[in-house]
Amino acid sequence: MSIHPAAKRHLLRKLLVFVVLVVIVAALVWWRDDQSAKKPQIITSTPSKSVSTTPASFDKSQHSINDPASIWVVVDKGRILPSNYTPVNLVVPKVALSEGSASENMHLRSEAAGAVEKLVAAAANDSQKLILVSGYRSFVTQQAVYSGYVSSQGQAYADATSARAGHSEHQSGLAADLGAQSGQCQLEACFGDMTEGKWLATNAHKYGFIIRYQKDKANLTGYAYEPWHIRFVGVDLAAELNKTAQTMEQFFGLTNYADYPTQTYQLKSGV
Ligand SMILES: [Zn+2]
């Protein structure tokens, strides 16, 4: 079968037009895809609940743990406060006091004082009457307290119950010993079994305090259980330590000193 040359040319023109059209359509499709890829992705669905409620990981570098004036300063048997360190903002909290307000011992750093006022007021609302037994203690006073224990009970007892000068959190002005207003079990482990002690263990973290020397953690803290000794660290860290049930040393990955090491770390300002 033969095709007339005119018909052949007509057919070829039709084919050419078809090919050109296909190329144009293909180019348009490619251009559209390319444009949509460049557009920012708009996600209209709401994020899943697990994503929106997962808290950001806790920032452990918010405050220094080495600066004596930091609310996170870690003082223990291996980490010593300078002998001349005195907090600048010591005040007497407006709570029931075990001594006169002129006493050094009835002072706390203002941050801790404000928090202890809220804590004691909240305890009173729950019918638990707490008093401040001991607060700030200077290096010199701590030296006298420790030597007093050594001469009366021996060094082993002194080291288990009192801190050597520079090693006491009380020098930071951020630690407080609380007691029941009845005076029962004052500075004794049985305070932890009283309703006041139980209230303190359950609620201290809400006001930025931790029970620093927990039961069965003497090998980590170097101190026997002290249910009366609370340490101000701020609400965020207190909540985190309460949740993770860790000591400050565990949380910050520091050495646990069950005893005094031969080499101690000197805490200093600006680090
Ligand atoms: Zn104490």
Explain what you see.
The longest helix has 34 residues, at 5-38. The chain is an alpha+beta fold. It has a single domain, classed as Muramoyl-pentapeptide Carboxypeptidase, domain 2 (2-Layer Sandwich). The protein has helices at residues 5-38, 49-53, 110-125, 139-153, 155-161, 195-203, 218-221, 235-244, 248-251; strands at residues 79-80, 90-91, 108-109, 130-134, 175-180, 209-211, 229-232, 265-266. The strands form 3 sheets. A 4-stranded antiparallel beta sheet has the order 4-5-7-6. It has a two-stranded parallel ribbon with strand order 1-8. Strands 2-3 form a two-stranded antiparallel ribbon. α4 crosses α5 (155-161). The model is unreliable at 36-52 (pLDDT under 50). Residues 170, 175, 177, 229 line the site of zinc ion (ZN).
In brief:
With 271 residues, the protein is of the alpha+beta class.
Task: Give me some keywords for this one.
single chain, 271 residues, alpha+beta, four-stranded antiparallel sheet, 9 helices, binds zinc ion
